[in-house]
Design brief:
The protein is of the alpha+beta class. The protein is 22% helix and 37% strand. It has one domain: Thiol Ester Dehydrase, Chain A, CATH 3.10.129. Strands 1, 2, 3, 4, 5 and 6 form a six-stranded antiparallel β-sheet that branches.
Protein backbone atom coordinates (compact mmCIF):
# COMPACT_ATOMS: atom_id res chain seq x y z
CA UNK A 1 0.00 0.00 0.00
CA UNK A 2 2.63 2.57 0.98
CA UNK A 3 4.70 2.28 -2.19
CA UNK A 4 2.12 3.71 -4.59
CA UNK A 5 0.89 6.58 -2.42
CA UNK A 6 0.91 9.85 -4.40
CA UNK A 7 1.02 11.98 -1.24
CA UNK A 8 3.54 12.06 1.64
CA UNK A 9 3.00 10.03 4.78
CA UNK A 10 2.72 10.74 8.47
CA UNK A 11 4.07 8.18 10.96
CA UNK A 12 2.82 7.66 14.51
CA UNK A 13 4.47 5.33 17.03
CA UNK A 14 2.09 3.68 19.50
CA UNK A 15 3.17 1.36 22.33
CA UNK A 16 1.07 -1.79 22.76
CA UNK A 17 -0.58 -1.89 26.19
CA UNK A 18 -0.86 -5.15 28.14
CA UNK A 19 -4.63 -4.71 28.46
CA UNK A 20 -5.08 -4.48 24.67
CA UNK A 21 -4.45 -8.21 24.29
CA UNK A 22 -7.34 -10.61 23.96
CA UNK A 23 -7.85 -14.06 25.46
CA UNK A 24 -5.59 -15.58 22.79
CA UNK A 25 -2.63 -13.45 23.90
CA UNK A 26 -2.44 -11.09 20.94
CA UNK A 27 -3.60 -7.56 20.16
CA UNK A 28 -7.39 -7.46 20.00
CA UNK A 29 -8.66 -6.80 16.47
CA UNK A 30 -10.60 -3.68 17.45
CA UNK A 31 -7.41 -2.05 18.76
CA UNK A 32 -5.99 -1.89 15.23
CA UNK A 33 -8.91 0.37 14.31
CA UNK A 34 -8.23 2.54 17.36
CA UNK A 35 -4.56 2.89 16.36
CA UNK A 36 -5.56 3.80 12.79
CA UNK A 37 -7.98 6.35 14.27
CA UNK A 38 -5.18 7.85 16.37
CA UNK A 39 -2.99 8.25 13.29
CA UNK A 40 -5.95 9.70 11.38
CA UNK A 41 -6.61 12.28 14.11
CA UNK A 42 -2.95 13.36 14.10
CA UNK A 43 -3.20 13.68 10.30
CA UNK A 44 -6.38 15.76 10.59
CA UNK A 45 -4.66 17.97 13.17
CA UNK A 46 -1.56 18.66 11.07
CA UNK A 47 -3.59 19.29 7.90
CA UNK A 48 -5.82 21.83 9.66
CA UNK A 49 -9.07 19.88 9.55
CA UNK A 50 -9.53 19.85 13.34
CA UNK A 51 -8.93 23.61 13.55
CA UNK A 52 -11.33 24.19 10.65
CA UNK A 53 -13.99 22.16 12.43
CA UNK A 54 -13.53 24.09 15.65
CA UNK A 55 -13.75 27.45 13.83
CA UNK A 56 -16.50 26.74 11.26
CA UNK A 57 -18.19 23.44 12.00
CA UNK A 58 -16.77 21.94 8.78
CA UNK A 59 -14.87 18.73 9.43
CA UNK A 60 -14.90 15.16 8.22
CA UNK A 61 -17.19 12.22 8.67
CA UNK A 62 -15.97 8.64 8.30
CA UNK A 63 -17.76 6.95 5.40
CA UNK A 64 -15.95 3.59 5.39
CA UNK A 65 -13.02 1.82 6.98
CA UNK A 66 -11.42 -1.61 6.79
CA UNK A 67 -8.43 -3.53 8.09
CA UNK A 68 -6.55 -6.61 6.91
CA UNK A 69 -4.80 -8.43 9.75
CA UNK A 70 -1.53 -9.91 8.50
CA UNK A 71 0.40 -11.00 11.61
CA UNK A 72 -0.33 -11.19 15.35
CA UNK A 73 1.03 -8.55 17.72
CA UNK A 74 1.89 -9.20 21.35
CA UNK A 75 2.94 -7.10 24.31
CA UNK A 76 5.53 -5.65 24.68
CA UNK A 77 5.84 -4.05 21.27
CA UNK A 78 5.51 -0.67 19.66
CA UNK A 79 3.59 -0.26 16.44
CA UNK A 80 4.32 2.34 13.80
CA UNK A 81 1.23 3.47 11.91
CA UNK A 82 2.01 5.09 8.57
CA UNK A 83 -0.84 6.96 6.93
CA UNK A 84 -1.43 9.25 4.00
CA UNK A 85 -3.88 10.16 1.28
CA UNK A 86 -4.15 7.81 -1.68
CA UNK A 87 -7.04 9.55 -3.43
CA UNK A 88 -8.24 13.14 -3.17
CA UNK A 89 -11.65 13.82 -4.68
CA UNK A 90 -13.90 16.86 -4.69
CA UNK A 91 -15.70 16.21 -1.37
CA UNK A 92 -13.86 13.15 -0.06
CA UNK A 93 -10.45 11.59 0.32
CA UNK A 94 -9.11 8.11 0.95
CA UNK A 95 -6.37 7.36 3.46
CA UNK A 96 -4.44 4.15 3.81
CA UNK A 97 -2.66 2.74 6.83
CA UNK A 98 0.30 0.42 7.14
CA UNK A 99 1.01 -0.88 10.65
CA UNK A 100 4.43 -2.36 11.39
CA UNK A 101 5.77 -3.91 14.57
CA UNK A 102 9.07 -3.09 16.26
CA UNK A 103 10.93 -5.47 13.95
CA UNK A 104 9.55 -3.73 10.84
CA UNK A 105 7.12 -6.51 9.90
CA UNK A 106 3.86 -5.31 8.37
CA UNK A 107 1.17 -6.62 10.75
CA UNK A 108 -1.90 -4.90 9.26
CA UNK A 109 -3.07 -2.69 6.42
CA UNK A 110 -6.18 -0.57 6.32
CA UNK A 111 -8.06 2.11 4.49
CA UNK A 112 -10.59 4.81 5.30
CA UNK A 113 -12.81 7.07 3.21
CA UNK A 114 -13.52 10.47 4.75
CA UNK A 115 -16.04 13.01 3.52
CA UNK A 116 -15.74 16.74 4.21
CA UNK A 117 -18.89 17.57 6.12
CA UNK A 118 -20.55 20.79 7.22
CA UNK A 119 -22.02 19.70 10.55
CA UNK A 120 -24.27 22.75 11.12
CA UNK A 121 -25.81 22.36 7.64
CA UNK A 122 -25.68 18.51 7.68
CA UNK A 123 -24.26 18.29 4.16
CA UNK A 124 -21.04 17.32 2.43
CA UNK A 125 -18.84 20.13 1.10
CA UNK A 126 -15.73 20.38 -1.11
CA UNK A 127 -12.32 19.75 0.46
CA UNK A 128 -11.03 23.29 1.16
CA UNK A 129 -7.94 24.40 -0.77
CA UNK A 130 -5.83 24.97 2.41
CA UNK A 131 -6.55 21.37 3.47
CA UNK A 132 -5.66 20.09 -0.01
CA UNK A 133 -2.38 21.98 0.16
CA UNK A 134 -1.60 20.74 3.68
CA UNK A 135 -2.08 17.13 2.52
CA UNK A 136 1.00 17.65 0.33
CA UNK A 137 3.14 17.63 3.51
CA UNK A 138 5.80 17.49 4.60
CA UNK A 139 4.95 15.81 7.89
CA UNK A 140 6.96 15.22 11.04
CA UNK A 141 6.79 11.78 12.66
CA UNK A 142 4.69 11.65 15.85
CA UNK A 143 6.36 9.85 18.75
Amino acid sequence: MSGGRPFPTLRVRIPVAWGEQDGFGHLNNIVYFRHMESARMHFLRVTGVLDLHQRTGVGVILAATDCRFLAPVQWPDTLTVETGVTHLGNTSFTMDYVLTNGEGTVVAEGEAVLVMYDYPKATKVPVPDPVREAMQGPFTDIR
